[in-house]
């Protein structure tokens, strides 16, 4: 019975793990909506440039473009590792 | 005025063609004059599911390129009055579809039909974008599984930006969620996303829930859309879906484990 309980708990987990992962992915995708098509490429190239100087993770960089009336602001956030 | 509805998903193999066939059949059974168009150029399948593969003479691309008239290409369904199929081309390359060509055909069909269903190919490329471009409503087919849900969200993004309604700032495409291949006992045991999880993640109104069902394979073997199998769970679930599409209020069915057998009670049940 112990084993069964264990297996059941493991399985219960897999769907909730899926849900948590999806919530993060979808939030990210929705953040990108309406942005110009070049943004993913820009993000990747910026990451490459930064990596010439500092080793950072794939998700260390966040960019977004906010459009206001007559100008757009490119916001760039980079999390650097503790040195 | 005709309503154009795209059946789409991003991911392949989730049940778009099955759903396009079942829903168009259901609409025609309610007396709505309906045409279902296969946009999967190069990989046509709808004709098989509708059971009219041997009657295909001309296809969508022939009509677009002026090699056949619309009336020559439309196939009248043998079982239901008011139902027509416009098959995709089996051989041509995808570039044969043009936006102007598709628009011309849809405009012509609008004169005659109540509902125009567009069965989208998988992916988010040209074919899928053409299938959704002129849509008034979209049925986003989703399986309770991570990659399907993520792709559905991508498709929702495209519906909100890469459609005629979006580009011309008209009323947005009306989005419906259709969850298919749902397996209540696996949901109960915790290894499948629940209906509410998917709804919450995508935040789109639920149009219907189709259980994983043996009746679907049986239907495709025979080339008879599953809606005709009125005794089956999937047939009834699609029929409910059609009712909701027509604005009726239908309670949800087939989302809970039906019969609780011994095995189920030992391994799956208990928690709800
Ligand atoms: N509710 C269901 N239950 C069982 N099998 C299903 C169900 N819906 C679809 N299928 C099966 O899944 C496969 C893919 O379906 P299809 O409609 O061709 O998907 P798509 O058009 O999205 O690629 C087919 O073999 C079909 O029989
Ligand atoms: Mg298909």
Automatic annotation (TrEMBL), chain A:
Top-level lineage group: Bacteria
Alphabetical UniProt keywords: Cell cycle, Cell division
Entry-linked InterPro entries: MinE, MinE_sf
Gene3D superfamilies cross-referenced by the UniProt entry: Cell division topological specificity factor MinE (3.30.1070.10)
Any one Gene Ontology BP term: cell division
Key word Nuclease present: no
GO molecular function, one term: identical protein binding
Family: Belongs to the MinE family.
Annotated function: Prevents the cell division inhibition by proteins MinC and MinD at internal division sites while permitting inhibition at polar sites. This ensures cell division at the proper site by restricting the formation of a division septum at the midpoint of the long axis of the cell.
Name this protein carries in UniProt: Cell division topological specificity factor
Organism per entry: Vreelandella andesensis
Gene: minE
UniProtKB/TrEMBL annotation, chain B:
Matches recorded under SUPFAM superfamilies: P-loop containing nucleoside triphosphate hydrolases (SSF52540)
Gene name as annotated: minD
Record-linked Pfam families: AAA_31
Residues annotated as binding ATP: 11-18
InterPro entries per record: AAA_dom, MinD, MinD_FleN, P-loop_NTPase, ParA/MinD_ATPase
Keywords attached to this entry: ATP-binding, Cell cycle, Cell division, Nucleotide-binding, Septation
Protein name per the record: Septum site-determining protein MinD
Entry's Gene Ontology BP terms: division septum assembly; negative regulation of cell division
One CC-aspect GO term: cytoplasmic side of plasma membrane
Subunit comment: Interacts with MinC and FtsZ.
Record-annotated AAA domain positions: 2-154
Gene3D superfamilies referenced in this protein's UniProt entry, alphabetically: P-loop containing nucleotide triphosphate hydrolases
Annotated function: ATPase required for the correct placement of the division site. Cell division inhibitors MinC and MinD act in concert to form an inhibitor capable of blocking formation of the polar Z ring septums. Rapidly oscillates between the poles of the cell to destabilize FtsZ filaments that have formed before they mature into polar Z rings.
Single GO MF annotation: ATP binding
Similarity annotation: Belongs to the ParA family. MinD subfamily.
């Amino acid at each position: 019975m112990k084993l069964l309980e264990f297996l059941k708990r493991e399985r219960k987990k897999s769907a909730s793990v899926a849900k948590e992962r999806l919530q993060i992915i979808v939030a990210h995708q929705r953040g990108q909506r309406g942005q110009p098509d070049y943004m993913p490429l820009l993000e990747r190239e910026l990451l490459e440039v930064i990596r010439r100087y500092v080793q950072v993770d794939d998700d260390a960089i966040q960019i977004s473009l906010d459009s206001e009336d007559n100008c757009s602001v490119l916001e760039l956030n980079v999390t650097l590792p503790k040195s | 005025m005709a309503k154009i509805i795209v059946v789409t998903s991003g991911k392949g193999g989730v049940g778009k063609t099955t759903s396009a066939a079942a829903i168009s059949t259901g609409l025609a059974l309610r007396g709505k004059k309906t045409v279902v168009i296969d946009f999967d150029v190069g990989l046509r399948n709808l004709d098989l599911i509708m059971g009219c593969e041997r009657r295909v003479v001309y296809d969508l691309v022939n009509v677009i390129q002026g090699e056949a008239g619309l009336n020559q290409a439309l196939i009248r369904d043998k079982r239901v009055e008011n139902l027509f199929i416009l098959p995709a081309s089996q051989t041509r390359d995808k570039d044969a579809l043009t936006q102007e060509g598709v628009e011309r055909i849809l405009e012509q069909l609008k004169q005659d039909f109540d509902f125009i269903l567009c069965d989208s190919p998988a992916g988010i490329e040209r074919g899928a974008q053409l299938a959704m471009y002129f849509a008034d409503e979209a049925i986003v087919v989703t399986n309770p599984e991570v990659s399907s849900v993520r792709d559905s969200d991508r498709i929702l993004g495209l519906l909100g930006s890469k459609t005629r309604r979006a580009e011309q700032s008209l009323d947005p495409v009306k989005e419906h969620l259709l969850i298919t291949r749902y397996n209540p006992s696996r949901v109960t045991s915790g290894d499948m996303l629940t209906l509410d999880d998917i709804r919450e993640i995508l935040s789109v109104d639920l149009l219907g829930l189709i259980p994983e069902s043996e009746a679907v394979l049986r239907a495709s073997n025979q080339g008879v859309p599953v809606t005709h199998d009125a005794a089956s769970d999937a047939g009834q679930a699609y029929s409910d879906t059609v009712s909701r599409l027509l604005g009726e209020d239908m309670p949800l069915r087939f989302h809970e484990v039906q019969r609780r057998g011994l095995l189920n009670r030992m391994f799956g049940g208990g928690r709800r």
